[in-house]
UniProtKB/TrEMBL annotation:
Entries under InterPro entries matching the protein: GP_PDE_dom, PLC-like_Pdiesterase_TIM-brl
Name under which the protein is recorded: Glycerophosphodiester phosphodiesterase family protein
SUPFAM superfamilies per record: PLC-like phosphodiesterases
Stretches assigned to the GP-PDE domain: 13-264
Length: 267
């Protein structure tokens, strides 16, 4: 029989630094993660892809623009990817946090992130587009295991894995039943999540992540009644945070961990 998922602790309210403290530094770069950790976020969020030569790399999109061409991550080698400068999008003249000090940053590999931050933080890792990357689940679990990050709660789980793909999460659950998983959803107007549906999710996942705009008190209660936690994304405004907290959510993804933590401390 497949093991039941581990429940996430109900305390503390989780602050998940979305792509790092990505309001203040380019997403998925060391400065963005460093800031998030300094600010006191419980987790740094990583979006995962895989290059043609099989390296797990941390960036948001399936593709990047290189020399005027859009290229898919799974069609380029990690060497080619290393020419890409993630700060270019961030360093716009209108961005008050733009800085030349970011200009030389490169897309980190998962290995580099784990080596750099080790035990200093916890990792909330999204498997993006798993259909494009056969075997990514095993590869990720093996890499996390090499770093002794699995099956460790001190006091929070060192690693949480998230995906929009239920197949990918079920695969991870089979490989590493002690790792808490988050099923992601995005809805335009209304969340279509029945108790029956959530019950099925609770067989492999410990919680759901969903776009904040569709979260209601009713949804939060239904999710909790299925034994799942709920982490809305992406919350960067105090008013929205307060309203979601009053509905009973368990944590948030945010680009501004400092703002969220200051506000939580005032509650
Ligand atoms: O992983 C939760 C949230 O980050 C999903 O949206 O596009 O920011 O990865 P995205
Ligand atoms: Ca994500």
């Amino acid at each position: 029989a497949v093991q039941q998922p581990v429940p996430l602790p109900s305390e503390p309210f989780l602050v998940i630094a979305h792509r790092g403290a990505s309001a203040y530094a380019p997403a998925h770069t060391f400065p963005s993660y460093e800031l998030a950790i300094e600010m006191g976020a419980h987790y740094i969020e990583l979006d995962l892809h895989r290059t043609k030569d099989g390296k797990l790399v941390v960036l948001h999109n399936d593709s990047i623009e290189l020399n005027g061409h859009e290229v898919e991550i799974d069609e380029i080698s990690s060497d080619v990817l290393s020419a890409f400068k993630p700060a270019e999008e961030f360093n716009q003249p209108t961005n008050e946090y733009a800085s030349q000090k970011f200009a030389s940053l490169r897309v980190p590999s998962l290995e580099q992130v784990l080596r750099e931050f080790g035990d200093q933080t916890n990792y909330y890792i999204e498997i993006k587009s798993p259909d494009r990357y056969p075997g990514i689940e095993r590869q990720l679990i093996d890499q996390l295991s090499d770093h002794h990050l699995l099956d460790r709660d001190d006091p929070l789980p060192k690693v949480i894995i998230q995906s929009f793909s239920s197949d990918s999460l079920k695969e991870v659950h089979a490989l590493s039943p002690g790792t808490p998983l988050i099923q992601l959803y995005s809805f335009k107007k209304k969340a279509k999540l029945s108790p029956a549906k959530l019950k099925k999710v609770s067989r492999y996942a410990s919680g759901i992540g969903v776009n904040a705009s569709v979260v209601t008190e009713h949804l939060v209660n239904t999710v909790h009644e299925s034994g799942l936690a709920i982490h809305p994304f992406t919350v960067n405004e105090i008013e929205q945070l307060s309203s979601l907290i009053s509905m009973g959510i368990d944590g948030v993804f945010t680009d501004k961990p400092d703002l969220i933590i200051t506000s939580l401390n005032q509650h």
